[in-house]
TrEMBL record:
<dbReference type="InterPro" id="IPR024694">
    <property type="entry name" value="PurE_prokaryotes"/>
</dbReference>
<feature type="binding site">
    <location>
        <position position="40"/>
    </location>
    <ligand>
        <name>substrate</name>
    </ligand>
</feature>
<comment type="similarity">
    <text>Belongs to the AIR carboxylase family. Class I subfamily.</text>
</comment>
<dbReference type="GO" id="GO:0006189">
    <property type="term" value="P:'de novo' IMP biosynthetic process"/>
</dbReference>
<dbReference type="GO" id="GO:0034023">
    <property type="term" value="F:5-(carboxyamino)imidazole ribonucleotide mutase activity"/>
</dbReference>
<feature type="binding site">
    <location>
        <position position="10"/>
    </location>
    <ligand>
        <name>substrate</name>
    </ligand>
</feature>
<protein>
    <recommendedName>
        <fullName>N5-carboxyaminoimidazole ribonucleotide mutase</fullName>
        <ecNumber>5.4.99.18</ecNumber>
    </recommendedName>
</protein>
<feature type="binding site">
    <location>
        <position position="13"/>
    </location>
    <ligand>
        <name>substrate</name>
    </ligand>
</feature>
<dbReference type="InterPro" id="IPR000031">
    <property type="entry name" value="PurE_dom"/>
</dbReference>
<keyword id="KW-0658">Purine biosynthesis</keyword>
<comment type="function">
    <text>Catalyzes the conversion of N5-carboxyaminoimidazole ribonucleotide (N5-CAIR) to 4-carboxy-5-aminoimidazole ribonucleotide (CAIR).</text>
</comment>
<comment type="pathway">
    <text>Purine metabolism; IMP biosynthesis via de novo pathway; 5-amino-1-(5-phospho-D-ribosyl)imidazole-4-carboxylate from 5-amino-1-(5-phospho-D-ribosyl)imidazole (N5-CAIR route): step 2/2.</text>
</comment>
<dbReference type="Pfam" id="PF00731">
    <property type="entry name" value="AIRC"/>
</dbReference>
<keyword id="KW-0413">Isomerase</keyword>
<feature type="domain" description="PurE">
    <location>
        <begin position="2"/>
        <end position="153"/>
    </location>
</feature>
<dbReference type="InterPro" id="IPR033747">
    <property type="entry name" value="PurE_ClassI"/>
</dbReference>
Length: 161
């Protein structure tokens, strides 16, 4: 099975980015998570992105906060799909992260998710949906997850005071 890479700018991003990992784990998708910093380890970033396909990854989830250049710079060095996760920053609540990730120039794509935990979880879901294109077990798991979620909402019934 193709693997999914999860990278993040700092270990401080892990509480957010582990939501992507948990989603992938739920669907039985193999993943590897590591810190790769656009600013603190720029050479590692290039090496990681350029060798990701030969290492068996089919998609990359990249999370960063503040001046969040990691997803875009990874996308610049690979043709694999990159899902960018804006991590909530202390100073600006993640708006800086979001704008840093989402405003890519035409021709280099990053699929940008929501700020914080929901975005990271949805990045995991999207990456699982990529894997599901080639893997029937993951496809069935994604469909079952969506159905269970719908059933839960429908079962909530009328709300009373
Ligand atoms: C970014 O700077 C990281 O992605 C993180 O969100 C932010 C703060 O990093 P630390 O100072 O906590 O290592 O590069």
């Amino acid at each position: 099975m193709a693997k999914v890479a999860i990278v993040m700018g700092s270990t401080s991003d892990w509480p957010t980015m582990q939501n992507a990992a948990l989603m992938l784990k739920q669907f039985g998708v193999e993943f590897e998570a590591q810190v790769v910093s656009a600013h603190r380890t720029p050479n590692l970033l290039v090496e990681f992105a350029e060798t990701a396909e030969e290492k068996g990854f089919c998609a990359i989830i990249a999370g960063a906060g503040g001046a969040a250049h990691l997803p875009g710079m990874i996308a610049a060095h690979t043709h694999l799909p990159v899902f960018g996760c804006p991590v909530k920053s202390k100073a600006l609540n993640g708006l800086d992260s979001l704008l840093s990730i989402v405003q890519m120039p035409k021709g280099v794509a990053v699929g940008t998710l929501a700020i914080g935990e929901a975005g990271a979880a949805n990045a995991g879901l999207l990456a699982a949906q990529v894997v599901a294109l080639q893997d029937a077990d993951v496809r069935d798991a994604v469909i079952a997850f969506r159905k269970a979620q719908t059933d839960t909402v429908l079962a909530s019934g009328k709300l009373e005071l």
